[in-house]
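Anyone else keep sequences and structure tokens together like this?

Example one:
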Amino acid sequence: MSSPKKIITYGTYDMFHEGHLRLLKRAKALGDHLIVGVTDENYDRSRGKLNVIESTEKRVQTIRDLDFVDEVVIETHKKQKAEDMQKYGIDIFAIGDDWEGFFDYLNEFTEVVYLSRTEGISSTLLRKENYDLIKLGIVGLGEDTKAFIEEATHIPNLRVNRIYSSDVNDLKKVTKEDNGVNYGHDNYDEFLDSSISAVYIDTALEEHYPLIRKALEANKHVLCENPLALHKSELRELLNLAKTKELLLLSAIRTAFLPAFNQLLSELKNGLIGDIKQVKATRTSSFKDKIYPDTFMTQGATNILSSYPSLLVNKILGRSKDITFFDQGTDNYDVSNLIISKHKNGGIGISNVATGIQSKGDAIISGTKGYVYIPSPWWLTKKFKVNHEDDNKSQTYKYEFDGCGLRYMIAEFVSLIQRGERKSKMLSPKDMIGINRVLLEYNERKIKQLEKAQ
């Protein structure tokens, strides 16, 4: 008895439609056993596909529910097609003819067949027909405002056309530029009363809490530079308010949404270097290279920069149970801080932050079977090297990203709103609490020290 003829095909299958169904049926007709690869949303974003609406889980389940599909796999990286063909003993790789010629190199592993697609229907068209345009307003003129406006132009179904600032002269400058931002407001209430449904906040740190609270009360989704608040009670209040109002509140820590960073977390979860015992990360900034407003400087290195190493430490080691600070500076401003955290799983986190002091901004993740090195600047993760005692087993992972990395964060924010979801798997409310625990605890200790000194 001859073995079944195996067919494999791949796709995103977002907004599943008749065109997808016909293509899959034609693929199945080529053989006996059909395997369908569904692209993971992180992989989609790494290759510039930022308009996917539905989650990986939903798209996978849609394909599994088709009675003629025999197996479903999740595609997570560029080389997987060739790997799957060898792993599953594939006879034919079928793909839509809009890719004609592109996958000819895979003939080395199996026969490549290009199938005609159904004209006049596409996921892109369905997105335009079924999802409203999201209008977003900018709050403040911070370090990343101009970059945010530019990066937002790459996100489908999103328009940034309003900005709020108390500085009228700055408003005039921004609205005169050819960037699509045509409306300036120096009154926050009037700004929130406009047609926008979401806001991005990039202002002085102490302004975050009142601006976020007012935006949530006005029923706007909020994306705000971290920290969301400088005190525990304020952060708790904002998260509870967002939950009550069924709104999305998300910290704008771009690292959390980068394709390479999420692939790293996935590999570590799968035991890439065994049990992880230590995570060490450094984030410093020289004011000569990057100028913060005076209001930022009064907050110090911990408030400005600790969110980044805290993200890496907490994502890998989980909730901390004890934090020790070794800060340098005055009572009102810490120039640097070495932060040691102990975690419930026995791991140790070592975070080094400083302003006006330069140091190598790399990161090392140490495990029982090896270690991962992320070169500087690790918070703009593009590659990481896995090192083992046997150097022959060491390997380097590379994931380039477009622009300055903000578009992946904006894409996640927009897709969550479109899906009606209020939590990001990449940066959940639980994650945000864990990440901010360091600076919130540090602020509480500083306040107590100052009160005691008085």
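And example two:
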Amino acid sequence: MPLLPLFATAGAILALLFLVLKVRLPAFLSLILISIVFGLTVGMDPSAVIEAVRNGMGGTLGFVAVVVGLGAMMGALLEASGGVEAISNSLLKKFGPDRAPTALTLIGFLVSIPVFFDVALIILLPLLLGLSERTGKSIIAFAIPLTAGMVVTHSFVPPTPGPIAVAEILSADLGWIILFGIITGLPAAFIAGPMLASQLVKLRSLQNITPPDLTPADEIARPSNPAGFSEAMFIIIAPVTLILIATVTKAVSPDWIPPQAMSTIGFVGHPFTALLIACLLAWWLLGLRHGLPAENLREACARALEPAGLVVLVTGAGGAFKQILVDSGTGTLLAETLLANDMPLLLFGFLAAFIVRVSQGSATVAMITGAGLCAPVAELAGVTGPTLGLLVIAIASGASMTSHVNDSGFWLVSRYLGLSEAQTLKSWTVMTTIIGLVGFGMACLLSLVF
């Protein structure tokens, strides 16, 4: 068995980590550079390398750009209309102060589906501060449950960028990913959220924390006639429900549904259509209907597309790396090696993403790299349908693990909650590790059924 492609693959991953971690090159630039150098190293013709990068980038962006863009705008409309605040206030009122950690986990889980993690944390920070001041408890008691819910959906549930990128690289069905993301994510969020927080608050080193005042008033300003809880929840649930219906209907394919109706269900439940419907509904139901000027809504959507653009480009570069693996034949060789050694595919995806995550920090880059390595293996093994969805969850679990000082999320949480590095390691890092382990464990259990 030729060893050059295998050594080249390992060298490419190490080089990628070195460029991102030590040289501090942007992830997009590093992935494109490594893709080209790797292709030349394993003997591909230079023109074939360029063609593979173009095809991989274009093929990935064709799907990811639309879904991430629409998802970002949907989240922006929810934020601008006060929908996020409506969800938070309603759930806290329903659960009461004593069960606030449980409510916060649900809030984080729901809000982080359409809203980017850092934006959601900034929006909900006053909620955490108010609860901590009102109850006299450490902010850890409320911040860990909230961020646990946010981390889970950020990594496990589309239309957040990470699972969208992995789904496209692996050609996995978003419906299965949404279903499995919810099934695996909720236990992970509650174990790493309220259950962990109840133990962390007993540590003397995590008490008497005074968060800095870092939230400008204009960032949390809300319209005079904000959206209500039911309206905001409808906007979040609508596209998820449409996608799930299309996936289940396709999988079951009941004979009593006419072909034309099946085609219509598939069209309406396609992520493009489902998210477009959600954005249009949000524009009218949450915006214009509540008196928000169209100009304000356009500005909110435009701001949301700025961070989305970076995610889309990094995802496209990951697609280019995957295409190089496929076109060079290295992916097939890697797949044959793994299958010959009977290494479970879910474990391989989890470990690949975990190693990259711990080494360079970015969960998105870890997910994309893990997916690129797993794609040829999954194709050769004939993995399809639900199993591909579980592979996405396994990769997401590995990419969620052990956030530490090389992760921007680590410093975001530390800065906004007023935690020292040691306190953040004891709380945030432990929480993300538990999420990864529980998520992977749940994926393995589900693989026994599907």
